Every structure is written in C-alpha cells, then in structure tokens.
Amino acid sequence: MKVSDLGRAEIGERIRRGRMRVRTGPLVMQLQSPFAAVADGVALLYADYPVPADDSFVDFSLGVTRGIGLRRWLKPQARFIYDGQAVFEPMAVDHAYPLLEWSMNWCVASQAHQYLLLHAAVIERNGFAAILPAPPGSGKSTLCAGLIHAGWRLITDEMALVARDGSGRIWPLCRPVSLKNTSIDVMRGWAPQAVFNRVTINTNKGNVTHMRVPSAHVARMDESVRARWVIFPRWRADAAPQLSARSRAQSVLELGRNAFNYAQLGEQGFNLLVDLVQGCDCHDFTYSRLSDAVAVFDALAEAVRA
Amino acid sequence: MSDCWRVVAPDLLTWRELDAQWLLHDAGSARLHLLDELTVAVLSTLEADAASAAEIARRLAADVGQPVDTGLVSEAIAHLVAADLVESVDP
Questions:
Q1: What is the number of CB-based contacts under 8 A between chain A and chain B?
Q2: Which one, of A135, A158, A118, lies nearest residue B32 by Cα?
C-alpha cells in the first residue's frame, strides 16, 4: 500500500493519532502531529512511498506537536518531539512541515549508525553513482534537484547511507529534496512539471520548500548503488562550468570531516571511507547554469558507459 | 622545544595509502589526518622509537641516502604535535 492509497482524510487521522508510518529507503518513520500542514505535506510529498504494516518495525517515531503553556494560543509554536523529549528549540507554527523534515534528518543523522552517514547528495545514472558532498551554500541541493529532472536518479539529497558490510553500496534514502530561497524559483523554471510543497517563509534557513521525488525514483528506492564519482560542487555566479581532478586522499579527508558518524564508527568508518573513495574519480566542479552542469554530468556518465 | 619526541598512542593509529598520499585515522581522537611524505616518515620513525629531530633527520638520511634538513623535520614534528599525534618525552 502506498501513502496515496490512504487518501488525505485517513493520512490526517493517522498522523493526528501518531500512527502514520512511511518507509523512505530502508528506514521506517512513524509520524505524529496535530497540524494540518504536516498532513498536507506528507500527503503531497510522500504519495508514492510505501506504508508499512501496523506491526512492522519502526526505526524512528517522531512528532511535531503544539507548543506548551501559553504558546498553544499566543504566537503558537511547533515542537519536535522524539521519544517524548523535545530536541530542537520550538519554531513558529507555520514552520511545522519543514520542522518535520528537519526532524527526520536529525533522526537519521544522529542514530542510523548501521550505516556510514555522509553529508552529501547522491545521484545515479547508468548504474553508477555520483556523491556530491558540499557545505551549505554550495549549490548542492539545486544541482541535485536539477539533475534528477534531467535523467539522473535521486538516491539522496542530504545524507548518504553507506553500507557497513564492505560492499561499498549506498542505499537510497530518497526523501523529498529540500530547496531554499532563490533555488526554489530556479527549480520551478527548470522543472515546471515538478511538484513542490508550499513555501515556508522566514525560517532560520530563509524561505524553504520541499520538492517531491519523481515517482519512478521512489519505485526504485530499494536498489542500492555503487559510487563512481565524488564531485565537490560549487555554484559561482557567471562561472563557466569547470571540472577539475581532485586528490582521492583529500576527498576522503573532506568526506570524513563532514560525515555524521565518522567518530562513532572509528577505524571501521575510516576503512569504509577509504574503500569507497578508492573506487571513485574525484573532482571539484564549479558551475553557474544547470544546463551546463547537466552536460558535464551526462558526459561523465556516457564516458563510463562507453 | 623538547629534544626528544614520541608517538602519543601508536596502537591507536591506522594508516591507508591512497595514490601516494597518506591518510591516518587516530582512534584516540577519532580524527582523520592527511599527511605529507616527510611527516609520514617522521611519524613512522617515532613509532619505532622516541627520538630527537636531529636523530630523526639522521635516520631518514640513512634510509634515503641523502641529507635531510633537521629544520624541516622540526616543522613536521610541530605539525604532529599540533595534531596531538606526537608529544614530548620530557615530563
């Protein structure tokens, strides 16, 4: 059963009662919230995702609930609750949907230690995956969003789940793509057919929304991939596209610094990371226009296939 | 600066070579390091035995068959000390 099979009313009821389960890649989330905006967002963005059985294992049970005390009525707030505990500072109530997404990110990043967790987008074409690690502001999410509407498959836009069994496989998380500020209009222009949640304004990240993952990508979210490239993107106004080789060792260092659980995994994390990068070509990539970026990425994919 | 240096916790270090560059995982601090060739050589020498910069330079020179600048070795040691990989033997 898919989320869309439930219908909006049932989705809302399940979320209100804290019994809405949805699977994203290998992880099952159980969601609870009294806010209609949360149910609307889930119904819109997760329509194609499977609904696990009521007795299935739940990886993360989380809630976005009302503020406490006067905050239920005066300047109402939304709070992220995990296992009964408030985790973040409360936010304005109209930030409830992005708060849900950020809460799901927090759950994975802080607890899914059955994987090596890299702070990176991952996309795939012709059976090969590109890891796109980058700090905020580098244009990573926009690039990822643009590429998945140009023939590349979304594996993840934020957190790469690297198997710890030595296979080097990366498991799709395949969650909605987070976009903010100017990248929202860029993507609306680039992919008019894409589906977006409503824009939430003035969050601590600016104006944000989430873009629905194409149905065909969700249908393949149980297909793991092997990395072929590590590409560090950087958006720069008016820059011509430039792809330059980068040292693998330097790439390991950067990935390790930005991994969510490198320290927890210790020596095994180190070896996983080196093994992962050892099989990849590593590059820095500067771009300003998505069309240029797609041409460069497509050329990489074609070269490997040839 | 001290005369004699040693590796803080040699049993906690794991090395991997990647394209002639060296990556080092320190399980003590859970930190990852990328080291240049000379710094690796200095650290390897200190893993075998505590030594002064001059002594390390002498041993490396014997290994490679050409003089090694003690000043460069001292710089490498300073880098390793800053990374908490090497410490002074002096109390």
A1: 46
A2: A118
